[in-house]
Structure formats: C-alpha cells, structure tokens
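Hi there, hope your week has been kind to you so far. Thanks so much in advance, here it is:
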Amino acid sequence: MGIFYFPCNFVYWRKIPDHEKIKSELLPLVTKSPMSQPNREGFDDNYFDNNPITKSIIYDSIDELVKVLNSRKGFEMTEIKESILTRWWFARYDDVHSGCACHNHNPNSMQSHQYINGKMFRSTFTIVYILNDDGPANVTEFIQPSQLGINASKSAQSLLRTSQINEIGEGTVLIFPSNLYHQVPQAFGAGRVIFSFDVSSIFEDYPKMGVVDYNKVTK
C-alpha cells in the first residue's frame, strides 16, 4: 500500500519575530512616497541586498516553509540549493476602496527561467509581507482556477480568503508559488502597506519533463 501526491499549490504564513523593528525602518520611507501602488519610490534599488531585513522576511521564512513541505509523507522533497530575490515593491492602500485585480507573478514560461551570474534560476515563490494594517482582517484572497479539477470532493476552483484566518494580520509573511493567482477585492480601511518579493531558486535535483523518482519520495 502506498500513495503519491502530485505537486499542489499552497499558502504558508508565519509571524516575523522582529516585525516592530522592521516596521520602524520601512514605514517612514513608505509614508514619504507621494505614490500609491505598486511602487519603490524612496528606496534605493539595492536596498534589500545584504540587508538583515531580507534574511528575516525572505530567507528565514523560506527555510521554515521547506521544513513544513518536506515533513509531508508521499510528496516529492523540495530541495533548494540557492535562492535569490529578483523583484520587489511596496503597495499602499490609502482608502477603503483600494484593491488589486486577480493576477499571478509568473504569467508565462519566458519569465520562469532566468540566467543570473551564469546560473539558471527558476521562478519559485512570491512573498507578501504585511507591514502595516489597522483593519479588522487581512484582505488577500488566493484563487486556484482549474477546468480539470484536482480533487474528487471539491469544485474545480478553490478560493482561500485570508480574512477568515485570525492569525494573519500585520507582521505576517505569506509565501506561495509565484504562479498562484491572488487578489485584493477591497481594503477594509486606509493605511494598509504591504511589501511583495519575487524569489527564484536553483534546485538540487530538477528532473527533466517533471519525471519523479518515487524512491526519493518514499524515503
């Protein structure tokens, strides 16, 4: 008897331990910007390079995510050799009518492979860091549309409203595959600020054509 689970989308979240310190550094730079979203106004392009904030928000969070993914039985192991921050920006929601249309961060295969310093990285994770939010609940929604259907007991389309998860709020990092669709239908109040980061990775073993070595799954 055995079982193998095909790769699936997910949303992982964790609280950042040093959130208040990070907020005191980033929020003043955001509030000086005359622009709303998406934006990098007020930040040097290399601001997050070799910055301790980057480790706390991005790389520590990815390490924790991988531990959770690899604790599951019957799934192929996620073995990341190296990750790099490829894009980032912040967004301000200045009134209760602010929102963001449904989208993902990996719209086509041309963007999923990047050669950086002679190495081929693959688009992997998008990270959303909720820097400031005085609203009653987080407003990000995740959508997995599918005409094929991936579960015998569910409809083809799956929707996760983070507003229904009490522990997701200011100081939370959300990590998800870059090709997972997400949106903000409407903010619950003014003053919400988020940072978004796109990360690409090199994997220890990335099989051609997606062929899985089942012996590695069952170890």
Observations:
- The first strand starts at residue 12 and ends at 15.
- Residues 12-70+79-205 form a domain with the Jelly Rolls fold (CATH 2.60.120.620).
- The chain has a mean pLDDT of 84.
- The chain has one domain: 12-70+79-205.
